[in-house]
């Protein structure tokens, strides 16, 4: 019991996952313990140093990090990335208390946590020294299991997945303003820029992508109540906004450079506008950046004309006034004082820590790097100045003679300066601002505007100019950084968008951003389950369907194209008559009265439900994150985005090229009555594109949380964080992630960590990793339903089983530690004893020698005469033993030593000589054996040669010679290939006769290859022209004399100039399908043989003959009515168009004009065959006309058009058949056929 208590106490401060049961009270207690004991890490999962159990300590051995959670890749990330993480998936209770406790920051940085592959990051509002170049190198190509959790680890994993596994990546970052979304995206992109390869071209691309950021920040960012550098635009999928460094001079502002949905303070309420960005950078197959694409939508245009006190307009206005030189401001007719301009609220521009002048210079330098020309920069600043000065245009009220209120310009000076900047007549702009043209049928009425209406038009003009200018700026940057077409590319995107919103007063802005978050939640759930299912299938584990809340019913409630809220809002905006929010709400109540996720005051009354929290002008939607009440006030106005046509036409009339290009609809020739799309429609289309883009990429998720509203470092407000936890849907994330198996790991790391728990796997396992894991878990006797063995991973269902494994491992580690200590102590004692014993022996030997030497110098013994005796000094001499002096003993010892050395030398010499003789004998034997073997092999080869080779020697030699000659021929041919010109048919001759056939085949192959290369280089237009020429060759070559003359004439197709000649425009309108050929022909009169000019239009479905004077169609034929064509064999342009015979009247449509009366309009769809009979035509482009008619007939009817080339043929007229005879005669003149009628059934055609 004591051991369990100690374990849980360690878990309370070391790992929130190990609490069991997991409740709000226990987690709050844990939070207090962590504040007291700041030296304990919190973490589990791959890459988390800070989980596990050492001998009595709540510490994890980080190199053997253990993974948990449903995702295949588990990430830990946050601002204080070196301080450990916590994986929420291992918790048992799913209440908001443990999530809230897990996010509380501790000393010295805020806590990061993750749920599977969803990263939870809390902004500490202070800079931390953990994003240095050394950290980049540490995490480059790192193993996710062996490093501390860090944003660089996620960036490295995503980049390597993109580069090595060819999978497009997308990182989704959500959170409200101030949560740190932009800084997270900057860190991701800066890491990628640092680790990708270097080079001049690569560095240029990086620099251009980098420099796009200051330009977009200047024109798209503004100071808000929550953020000093808030992005006020949303970037669509495909954006390449790469933010690698802060723009301002203060490095500490990096953590506050946050792009996202910002709050705008209105009448006592917060009114955030949906904002964010999506960054896309494109790479080649090597992982080097190629460029990017930027596309934006929904700029916060309302900020141009008004913003609350304490906020600022877009940065560019303040930067231009503060950083522009005196000459530039004079050129733009601006004053340096911000208080002079109404659109800047006539307030001072000061912002602590921001140097607007330096930022303006940075923006100018960035434009030069991107590739803006000086003229483009000047034009851009001129339009910006026009927007700023429009706010100072004041209107005064007056009354007309009819008593109606009108407005006029109070101070013409500002208007005059604006018109000088854009090259426009002041009267034109004044009329557009103070009046409006209304068109009703064929009448045009000029109505005056009241002062409020005039101000509305002025502000709408300013907003549209700036919004379109920003679009132009984005497109211009795209021109510099876009990837060349045709290159294979990979994409890494970072989506930075605001999270779910529930405020006291929720309007149109909260409605559309919550709709976007519903879609993001839907894609998160579906892709998470898809990833889980794919891993289960990949590992051979049976997939069990997971029950979860499918929010598609909410998405359909909002976005359904026929009956959704957005569709009803658009319908209400376009409905004629009185339109207001009351009718809109009434329609919603009628449509969704029975919908379980929609309610309003009226639907509650119908259900007899009393709810005082739901006002009458509101409706409520049950989102996945909670119920949100929306006030419909302003829905209609904010959804509409209208600009008076007079203002667009006035901007088109300006001589300023850039401003003129921003208003193409102002062209009087292109007036369109079509209403512009509503804001809701645009946002819905953008969300659909975003979802499509996200589905095509591998997702990674980061949820950013703001700990407090005051940007105070290390201040944690539980109520604020609790709301964000709900809005971000973290509880739903945990619930989905915990479904199925909560833990999985590769067999190798799993066996390496737990192999000490079984004597069969400890200390080494000789078999495979999977077999070792199976043996290990079989001995531990866990229930079978708790385990599943995949192909490469082990799956554990519940965290309790994992905790039991950890507990057993802790106990076993303690036993092994005791065994190691015991073994080490025994080894150390034995080693010390042996060292002491050896030292004692050495000391004793030296001491005895010293005594012997000392005794010999002092005592003189008599010289020995017999066998010496080596007794100890002072010991009694044995009886009969002569006593030797020490000198004699020494000499005797030396003599014995010399004798021993001589004997050893003779013995070693004898052994060496014997070994040498044996080696020489062995060497001689080896040499003899080799000689014998060589002779024997030579004999065998010669015998085999005589037996086999001589019979085939001639064939072998001939084949060798042939191969050598062929090789020489091919090498020479490679060096002397003819030019790659299609018309060049030259080819080197074959040097030998036997190569003639091969040479001819190679010539044919080479020529076909040249033709193929030539065809591949052809443009589509050139290819179509050559195909037409080929078709003409098949039809007329060697059959008609005119064909040879047409070879040098290009087929133009359009000889009339329909688009340039206004007279022929109605003819072009008659031919509604695609035009194939337009030419002038001469039609032969059926009765007299005389010819009259006609305009011939050939389309993909019809053939039209029209009067050239009145430009009215005379005959319209469907291609299906044409039966065949007859031409002569001479060089004339005469042809007969044979039509199918249709019984009855009205089968043909040939229109004849009546004098003094306009021909009625003709639709090509009303024509069929010809009742008046066949047509005889004369064309100057006969070959092209018949060819194109043949091709069009083949494409439309899927069959060939019969063509007859003869001197005599029969035609069918209304009064009977007529035989046409073609005669070659000089009377025909200069190539123009002459037709003469010979009776009622014969016609003679004279050709030259």
Automatic annotation (TrEMBL):
InterPro entries assigned to the protein according to its UniProt record, in alphabetical order: IQ_motif_EF-hand-BS, Kinesin_motor_dom_sf, Myosin_head_motor_dom-like, Myosin_TH1, MYSc_Myo1, P-loop_NTPase
Keyword presence, ATP-binding: yes
Cellular component, GO, one term: cytoplasm
Annotated Pfam families: IQ (PF00612), Myosin_head (PF00063), Myosin_TH1 (PF06017)
Source taxon at top rank: Eukaryota
Annotated ranges, domain Myosin motor: 113-810
Positions annotated to bind ATP: 175-182
An annotated Gene Ontology molecular function: microfilament motor activity
GO biological process per UniProt: actin filament organization; actin filament-based movement; endocytosis; sensory perception of sound
Protein name: Unconventional myosin-Ia
Species of origin: Mycteria americana
